[in-house]
Amino acid sequence: MTTLSAYSALAERFTRLYRYHHLHAIASWDQATMMPAKGNEARAAALAELQVLIHRTLTEPGLAGQIAAAEDEPLDDMERANLREIRRSWEQANLLPEALVEAKALAGSRCEHAWRTQRPANDWPGFLANFREVVRLSREEAQRLAEATGVRPYDALMDKFEPGMSSAEIERVFEEVKGWLPGLIRQVRERQEGETVLAPAGPFAVERQRALGLDVMKLLGFDFDGGRLDVSVHPFCGGVAEDVRITTRYREDDFVQSLMGIVHETGHARYEQGLPRDWLSQPVGQARSMGIHESQSLSFEMQLGRSPAFLELIAPLVRRHLGEQEAFSSANLARLYTRVQPGFIRVDADELTYPAHIILRFEIERALIEGEIEAEDIPALWDEKMQAYLGVDTRGNFRDGCLQDIHWTDGSFGYFPSYTLGAMYAAQYFAALRRQQPDLDAQIAAGNLAPVFDWLDRHIWSQGSRWETGELVERATGEALNPAYFRAHLERRYLG
Amino acid sequence: MTTLSAYSALAERFTRLYRYHHLHAIASWDQATMMPAKGNEARAAALAELQVLIHRTLTEPGLAGQIAAAEDEPLDDMERANLREIRRSWEQANLLPEALVEAKALAGSRCEHAWRTQRPANDWPGFLANFREVVRLSREEAQRLAEATGVRPYDALMDKFEPGMSSAEIERVFEEVKGWLPGLIRQVRERQEGETVLAPAGPFAVERQRALGLDVMKLLGFDFDGGRLDVSVHPFCGGVAEDVRITTRYREDDFVQSLMGIVHETGHARYEQGLPRDWLSQPVGQARSMGIHESQSLSFEMQLGRSPAFLELIAPLVRRHLGEQEAFSSANLARLYTRVQPGFIRVDADELTYPAHIILRFEIERALIEGEIEAEDIPALWDEKMQAYLGVDTRGNFRDGCLQDIHWTDGSFGYFPSYTLGAMYAAQYFAALRRQQPDLDAQIAAGNLAPVFDWLDRHIWSQGSRWETGELVERATGEALNPAYFRAHLERRYLG
Q1: Which of A11, A147, A381, A460 is most enclosed, with most CB atoms within 10 A?
Q2: What does this protein do (chains A, B) (predicted)?
Q3: Which residues on A lie below 8 Å from B231 (Cβ)?
Q4: Taking a C-beta distance cutoff of 8 angstroms, is the pair A386, A367 a contact?
């Protein structure tokens, strides 16, 4: 009988964990897309049981010694990077007691499920009853993580989604954005006042929208032998790298948001489908961070998807599926997709007002987690900030206000900054890509998207978690995160 | 700190197992209905990992003592019955080594997945390459179980599906059936020769068939808040009791089989939906056996579904969804659904020739498991028996021959007898029910299906696994399994 090296034993354990995560991902996808209402209690219990199992598998007493032993073994670069990520997972899990993990999973699942009907019913008090428990448990989680790691409680939660980022840095970046964004929005809105934008005339049958979405996914290189498109209340990209499940939602009176939502989720999906196949079962083979994940969806949605060149490319598809309308000219589509209009809904927001939605959520969730406000204070604060940042009146409209997002329902506090980080990374990638390919827009308009896919594949997808986020971005673009690219992109597109 | 009783500790463990089974059921349903091809390798690995976990949870060393200790604790009747079922699960799991469980799960999953494309391609040699391994591992399983329990290898496999039944008893019953069935088939076919049966004229759009199926499921009391209807290559009833997933398959040129398939699976589904809610997480709250499960699907399909009264009830639904045709008169539908016509496909077989399909499979699989034949001998044996029992020539047609069923692909040997046992139990139930409700057919034709549902709920569904199979049937009908009711039912319906 041969003895496994410590590293091999760890790799085996993480393969097992990968399979547990597979089951969790598929059962969660099913919960959001297929499951009838009465299935939820048993599903929530089964998912919580699985989270306990995952947590237990990550916290067995022998692991500390095994990781230390593996660190002394001869490993190649990928194995070394894998071991770094193994240690990260292990540390994160070992800071939390199992009972807390299970309680949070259960409370989150219950709150999320009830939210699916509470949101359309505008039922804030009903939501609050479940949400208080989610907040209580998330604060406990944050407190425990913060004490052990010496960071602020909110930073400790954020670290799960964007390792290495601090809320102080986020705040610095966001304060800077708050400095120029309102002026830019004002300027662009004045400029767009004289513009004529034709509104597409619906209704647009769901089946046709779906067929159009599938065609656009094909164009974007989504591998349908390794994934699906379905419908859920809140669009997401789930499943596993070998079988990526993206969702959208349809409105018969408006195809514009749903279509760009599909472009967005397809960006997430291609990242997953492009991760290094030989390493999928190990932490190093998985996506780098949520900020990097959003940088892929936003590379697709914002950098590529809303560019005039891409809209020129897909305008014929829109006409093929939805019929001929003047509104479907590529020029009008470009005006539609760059129209700046402060509104209620984050996922429907235009590129320019989007960061304001994120800054608002960041400020509220950080205050909530750090005990400066309570859950019941959220609506008033929401109303105040929406008025201040976007001039929008959300009073009494919880459905399109603080109930609109899924993130808080299951306690995913600390995620929101990833969206705007993602937008900034994406702007930085495309600046690098354009330096290499000065005729990029002509290529895109001609239907050659390969330069985009190749660049993202080479620099991001195929790299998995081989590098820490900072190094990944630097290797890809030649410098660390630099928000100036984001501002320059916005000014070029909206004032250029 | 209080110490749990041994019984409570066992109940907690079995709740955990119930949740693992939940994940297995949903991921398996997804594999058959939703999953794209490239997802299979990872899915198979995840499901096998879960089976290992389940096996490990059932084989921890402390369990033997815990079960023995619980048997000495004061328990009420349900707890006592639950403990009996806990012991049964534990014994079954502990007789097999983990490596064998995992290897069989993997081989089965691979073979089943490949079969999905091999069957339409009529690719017996391709199938055989995977299937040999499934047979090898199933024989090993049978051998180990047989040695430990002192029964024949085949009986040891059958015990998983129909506890307490022996192949000697099956053989006795089947030999008897072989005595009268061929003559009955001949007599009925002669009688039906002069009958005019109008063939429905297709095509029937899948969406309309689906809408009709959903309406029939409503009529049959399927709870759509606790289940779904989808499509798969091989129809089945899966999911969990709280969320029952049934499937069918559609052919545009024939709605007759698909519709009755839905009635069949709805019978399985109502059993699951009717199991005792307070005991669902425990073995005693689960379905009694596969024979009893099939007795529910066949109560729905054969006793109720193909009765003239029921067809009178659903004829207007058929016309509403598929349009007006002379063929959709209730009298013609009754002739269609009782038409006896030996054919290739078990699941499409009429009520009368169906047992011949089962007897053939029973004879082949018993010989295969007990080493009297090899996997490569199956086609010749299949051809010979189809010719002998049904006068049908299957040579070279593997697709509609020995490749037609899913059961062997994952090593579910010993299941097939459950179908004909189920048909016999169902005939016996309806004989008892008719003694109580002499006007049953009039009630059914008038749309009052409550007497059927109430009887099945009271005697079968709500009982879960409280009684051993023999006692369940005896309590329900006043006597042990008596195949005479089956023969009487067939003679009444087909010669009456």
Answers
A1: A460
A2: Broad specificity carboxypetidase that releases amino acids sequentially from the C-terminus, including neutral, aromatic, polar and basic residues.
A3: none
A4: no
**Which A residues in the span 43-82 are in contact with B, Cβ-Cβ below 8 Å?**
43, 45-46, 49-50, 53
Is A1 within the bounds of a domain? no
Phi, psi dihedral angles at A181 (to 5 degrees) = -65, -50
Of B36, B39, B243, the CB nearest to A36: B243
Residue A27, chain B, CB below 8 Å: the answer is: yes
Decide if B159 is inside a domain.
Answer: no
Contact B42 A50 (CB under 8 A): no
Residue A242 in contact with partner chain B when CB distance is under 8 A: yes
Active centre residues of B (catalytic): 265
**B396-449 pLDDT per residue, tens:** 999 999 999 999 999 999 999 999 999 999 999 999 999 999 999 999 999 999
Residue A178 in contact with partner chain B when CB distance is under 8 A? no
What pLDDT does B3 receive?
Answer: 67
CATH (domain of B483): 1.10.1370.30
Question: Which phi and psi (to 5°) does residue B469 adopt?
Answer: -55, -50
The answer to whether residue A102 neighbours chain B at the CB level (below 8 Å) is no
Distance CA B138, CA B101 (A): 10
**What domain count does chain B have?**
2
B50 CB neighbours in chain A (<8 A) are 19, 23
CA distance B241 to chain A (A): 9
Residue B358 burial by CB count (10 A; 0-12/13-18/19+): exposed, middle or buried? buried
Tokens of B172: 């006795």
The pLDDT score that the predictor gives to residue A309 is 97
Partner residue opposite A27 with nearest CB, options B23, B38, B223: B23
Dihedrals φ, ψ of B216, to 5°?
A: -70, -40
Q: What are phi and psi of B280, to 5 degrees?
A: -55, -35
Q: Which residue among B22, B37, B224 sits closest to A46, beta carbon to beta carbon? A: B22
| B22 and chain A in contact, CB less than 8 A | yes
Question: What SS3 class is residue A254?
Answer: strand
How far apart are alpha carbons A413 and A138 in whole angstroms? 8
* Strand bridging mode A237-240 / A243-248: antiparallel
Whether B22 sits inside 8 A of A35 (CB atoms) is no
Domain range for A242: 168-495
pLDDT per 10-residue tile (average), chain B, 496 residues: 83 98 98 96 94 93 96 96 96 89 90 94 97 98 93 94 91 93 95 94 96 98 98 94 97 94 97 98 97 97 97 97 97 96 92 96 97 97 95 95 95 96 97 97 96 98 96 96 95 94
Residues flagged as binding site of A for Zn(2+) = 264, 268, 294
**Residue of A214, A242, A246, A273 for testing the chain B interface, max B β-carbons within 10 Å:** A242
- Asked if A143 and A180 sit in the same domain, the reply is no
Q: What angle do CA B36, A210, A219 make, to 5 degrees?
A: 70
Query: Residue holding tokens 């994160």?
Result: A92
Q: Count A/B contacts: CB-CB distance under 8 Å.
A: 97
Do residues B131 and B174 both lie within one domain? Answer: no
* CB spacing of A242 vs B38 below 8 angstroms: yes
Q: Which of B151, B185, B212 is the last residue of a domain?
A: B151
